[in-house]
Each structure stands twice: as structure tokens, then as C-alpha cells.
Amino acid sequence: MMKMTKLTALCAVGYVLLATQTPLLAAQECNSRSALPANGERFTSHSNGTVTDKQTQLMWKQCMEGQRGARCLGQAAILPWDRALQTAYTASQVNFAGHSDWRLPTVEELLSLVDKQCREPAINLRFFPATPASSLWSGNQSDPNAWSVDFSAGHPFQSFKAGGKYVRLVRNLH
């Protein structure tokens, strides 16, 4: 029988982590007085991979591009801004969830998802699971930059369009 050394065990764990291709997410930190129940009443999760925000009248893709299923499994795609625009076009062409008007959100729309009571990530994980504490592209641009929102704490900033960010698509309800 093979003797398992500490190094062999660490290599085996590393292989399993790589094989699953699931990002390791830091534990979310929320204020103990978090308004998650009230925030939860604001969102409606649908069985088609979308979440409706009753406050803003927006429908969001529950998962970021590259993730799948109700738990948003898999690796979210990190894309340059022009490829992020292309994913919105593609989602519209295939009528994701029966809709053909998917787009990149504005900075203000992304900021509406920020849960200020939480950080790492600053979002309601009940409705948007497996969201990393990282940046998502918006559709706002000012050449050669585009705006994004960092969901580690929920702050907007500009960066070069060639850089990579995550993508979550949105559409207006009406």
C-alpha cells in the first residue's frame, strides 16, 4: 500500500481543486444588522436563470457569463469590454430566458445591486450566488476606458477596455 506523505496529500488536494475549476470564494462579511430580509423582498428569482428587481424594474441574469445553473456553478468568464458587449448581443440573439434585449448594465444599475451591509462580495448572494468579490463591466464608456463596479466593497471606477472584468447582463422589464 502506498504511503501518503504530506506533500502527496497537498498535491492531491491541489489536483482536486484544479480539476473542479471552481473558484475559491472568500467568506462574505455582512453587518449583523443587515437588511437582507427587506432586500430579499425586493428581488424575485425565476426558474429560468433570471432575477427581477422590483425596485428598479430590471431583470438580471442570475449568473455571470460563464456560470450555469441555479447555483451559478463553473468559472465566470473574465472578458475585455468589447467581448462583454458581444456576450450581450449573443444572449439577445439566442433569446436567453425568452428575451432579446439583454445588454451591459449602466454603472448606476450595477450600483443598485450593491448591498452596503455586506462586503467580499457586496451583493445579496441568496439571489446572485457565487458572485466573486471582483469587478463587473458596465456599458458606460469614455474612450479608451469603460466604467466598472468593484463588488468587493461596491465602488465604481474606470479602467482600460482591454482589461478583463466579469459580466452580468440586464434588461428593462418595460
From TrEMBL:
InterPro entries for this protein: Lcl_C
UniProt entry keywords in alphabetical sequence: Signal
Signal sequence annotation: 1-26
Lcl C-terminal domain sequence ranges: 49-171
Protein's name in the database: DUF1566 domain-containing protein
